[in-house]
Amino acid sequence: MKIGAFIAKVKWPVKGGDLEQEVTGVVSDSRLVLPGSVFVCVRGMVSDGHAFAEDAVERGAVLVVAEQELRLDGRVGVMRVPCSRRALAELARGFYGQVDEQLGLVGITGTNGKTSTSFMVQHLFQTVGVKTGLIGTIQYDVGSRVLPAFRTTPEADHLYRYLAEMVQGGCERAVMEVSSHAIDLERVHGLNFEVVVFTNLSPEHLDYHQDMERYFGVKRRLFMQLKAGVGVAVVNVDDAWGRRVAEELGPGVIRVGEGEGADVRAREIEVDGEGMRFELVTPWGAGRVRLPLMGRFHVGNALAAVAVAGHAGVSFKQLKRGLREMVSVPGRLELVRRFRGRQVFVDYAHTPDALEKVLASVRATVRGRLWVVFGCGGDRDRQKRGLMGAVAERLGDRVVLTSDNARSEEPAQICEEILAGCEEGERVEVVLDRREAIFYAMGALERGDVLLVAGKGHEAYQELRGTLIPFDDRDVVREWKRI
Hints:
By secondary structure, the chain is α/β, with parallel strands linked by helices. The protein is 32% helix and 23% strand.
């Protein structure tokens, strides 16, 4: 596609350059520029893409898109736009096509449960032979290959490319986690969703959003991208913010939850050491189902997934089979080790609400003591640190505070802020080295005890002082040998 034909798809004029040159791609990272690339200067949290325009041209960019005047001496065309992030999405759409019209696109947003719900939706579709792509916190399954995720929702140039790859790979549907940052930073701009799921809302990212009302407002915006006339919202009405979403949206909402007002509902929930059984009531049928996952909170995730798949035409019989065959999501209350009457779980819980839910789920099955090893990420919402300390102390018998992804902060200072939320110091200890903290807790376990290592889940690295260090909680748990 030549530049002239390419820019005809958008509304902004181009100054200078050769409009007969071929466009080979759209990128926002100058390091990824190849000959023929369109480079979009995006302002980030740390760096500004405008500072790398010269580098992009030297690497072969044939068009530069910017919000400000650039001195490029007419070597390439320059497109001035009011918002580079929106332009990035629109240009990516122009290059890769209307991929959302070729895929049944499901967007899942909320503070907690996005990853588990997205895996469940993909599983239910693939159980009935519907090839389904996945974009989320753990991985990008783009049809022909599976890539490790570098953020929950990638930038628009990557996202549109992955969706196009799904189409080429034969996917009929795509399910994606949509973070609040992705919505606010226009990463999903221009996409039309067949279904949008709201899981819940609790304090998180308030360093960015400032307060819960603004945080809610950003999440709420995603529902404006439902396909006109056919798009459906799936909302967890057990959550207060979810009830507000459902009330504001009105018709076209599938309500899920345990209460009487839910369209897709769970009743008579029984929890055992292998998972749960409950009565599933839906518009497509009702009956007793088995969900072989640990963690009562998974009931809500499963209800949302059932609503998405059931609305798309998956029969109740197939839904029951899909739930019965559900497999654990990596790093989501994952039982990593069981030895001599002791159990060790790893979970991604990194918010007060998520930590409370996972601890409450584990607490219900513990015969002995419940140990908790966790920390909080650096350069992130500091308001939640004391709250998480209070939750861990209230629901755990012994708590070991340690480093998480401290980033530029000192792990000791982060632990001090977590400790500020604790009341009884004797049940809470600090072991800053995360490997040592896990080993210490495992060595102290007695028969009937359970250890939860929380905060990082599936992550295979630890970020300390700007360096990514290989570190997987699950591997560390497997390494330990009782002396």
